[in-house]
Amino acid sequence: MNSGYNSMGNSLDRIRRSQGVDACKSMFGRLGKEHKQNAVRLVNDGSLFFASLFILQPEIEELNLKEELSERNRIALSLCKKILDNKGTSESADRMISLNSEEVHHVLLWMFNTGAADDGLNNDFDQVLDIVASVLMKTHHEKTILPVMTNMIFKRNQRGHYIHDLVWACFQTHDANALRLIAGYLRSPVAKDVDLAHTLLHLPQEMPSSSFPDRQKQYVSYLSWLKENEPYLYFTGESLQFTNNPTPCGVDLEAKYLCKDGGMRGRKQPAPLTDTERDSLTKFNRISEEEKKALAKHSQKLHRENPSYWSEWMQYPIDKQVNVAQYGRRKPK
Amino acid sequence: MILISDKEVKQAVLDAEFKENSIERKIIRILASSSARYSYDSLEQLKFELQLRREIIAASYELNQSGMDFAIFRKTRCNPDYWRRAEDGGFVLKENVKPSNAILDIFKNGSLYSTECATAMMIVYYKALLSVYPESLFNKTFPRIKLMNWHQIDSLLREVGQMKKREDYLPGDRRYFVNPDVNPLTPEWQGENVIDLGNGLYYGHGLGIHNPDMIIQLLNKNRTEDADESARLVDSAGRPDFKRLAGISQGYNP
User: Fold this and answer.
1) Chain A neighbors of B118, CB-CB under 8 A
2) Are residues A90 and A183 in the same domain?
3) Contacts of residue B162 in chain A, CB cutoff 8 Å?
4) A86 and A162 housed in the same domain
5) N or C: which terminus of chain B carries fewer CB neighbours within 10 A?
C-alpha cells in the first residue's frame, strides 16, 4: 500500500515485516533485558514505523521503558490508550493531552503516515488509524493525508473490512479534493472500487461501467461537473451510518447564480450580500428548481467567459434572464 | 387524506376497526388529517402497514429489554450458534440455521450480542416481520440475512436505508439524530439511529428509550470542546416498502 511515507523503517520494522510480529516482539524483549539502552534507542528512532511501537506496547510496559520513551512515542501511546479505552470525553489519566496542540498534530501525522502501510494489522490498530485520521481531519483540517486515506478506504472495501468511520473522516475536510481522489476510482478495473466510488459520489449505480471507455467517460464527466461547481459546493455531513445513499455534497445554487466563490461554502457563514444581490436572490428564489439550475449554470458560464456582459445580464428582469439562459440571446418564438 | 382504491376513506370508518388509543388509530389520524394523499390498493394493504408499524414499535421495546449490549462495529459480538461475525462487524446467518430461530435468539439471549445502533434497527425490522408473517413465509422470504446496516441489506428492505423528507412522520419510522460537532475520538457518537415509538419517545440502541431533548443532550455530551452546533433530529425518515411486503404476505399460500 502507498503509505505516503518513503522510509524503510529501522531494524524493528524490518524484522516485523520479514519475520512477523512475534519475532519482532521477542527480539525486542531479549534486547531490552540484555541491552536496555539499545532497545530504547531503537524504539525512539525517528525512522520507526508506528505499527512497531504499537505491537511493542506490552514489552515496553514489562521492561519499564515508559519513562525513557521519546515525546513522540509517549504521546502516541497515550493516544492509543485514550482511543482503545474509549475515553474520548471522560476524565482519564491522559487528559493533559490537548488534541489541538501542534506537537500532537505532528505525532498524529507520524502515526497515520507510517501506520497506513500496516492497515489490517489487527482490529485495535485499525481502530486507532481510523480515529487518528478523524482527529487529523476534524481538528487539524489536515488535507495532506487524503490520498493515503482514500487508498485505504478502497483497499479495505476490496477486503470486505470496515470503512464507515474512515469514509466519514474523509468528508470531514469539506474539501473537493476528497471527491477528486474518489473519482479516480471510477476508472478502476475492479468492480468493487467502481461501485463504492459511485456510492460515495452519489452517482447512479446503474451507469454503464463494464468497459474502460465507459469508466473513463464517467470520470471525465464527473471532473467536469466538479470543476464547474467546486466554488459553490457545500458538504452535507451525510454518512454511511445515516443512509445507504448518502449525498456528501450539494451545489449552492444561490452562490453559483451570484458567482460568489467561497464564503457561502458550508452554508454556515454566508458572505455579506449587497442590496442588489439580495434583490436578485429574492427574484431567483421565486422561480422553479429546474429554472434555478439552468440560470445558475448559465450565470457561472457567462461570468467566466464574458464578465462585462454578465454584469449587464444580471440587470435583466428574472424572466428575461431565464429566457437568455434557456434559449440564448434570441428571444424564444 | 387516505385513499383506498382511489376513493377517500374517512377516519371514523377506519377507526372502527381498531381499539381506542391504539397506535393504529394514532397513525390513521395522522394520515387522514394530512394534506398529503396516502393511497392504498385495498383495506388489507393499509391494515398490513398499520400492523407492521405496530410490530416495529413492539420489537423496539423488546430489543431494549433484551440485554443486547452496545459495541462499535470493530468490537461486535454475536451468538456463534446462529451467526458468523463478518470482517466488517456485521452478523451473517449461518448455513443450516432457521432465520426465524436466529432472529429470536437475539431477543432470548441478548447478552451474547453487542452491536451498533444501525444493526439494532435491522434486528427490529426482521423481528417485526417475523411477528407479521407466518414463520414459514419469513424463512422462505429471508433465507440469507446479514445484519449490519443499510449497505448489505436485503433488497426487500432496501428502502429502510433511504432517508427522505416526508410530509408526515409516523410511529414506526426510522429517524436519525445527527451530531455534527462530534468529538473525533468517539465517532460512534456522530449520530443515533432511532425508531419513532409514537408517544413522543424514540428507541435508540445504546441510549435506550428517551424523548428527543434527552437524546440531543446525550449526543451533545460527546462533542468537541469548541463545538458550536447542537445535535438535532434530521428532517427525514426511512421506511420499508410496506406495499411490497404486504404483497408477499397476501400472495402466500402455505
Assistant:
1) 241
2) no
3) 243-245
4) no
5) C
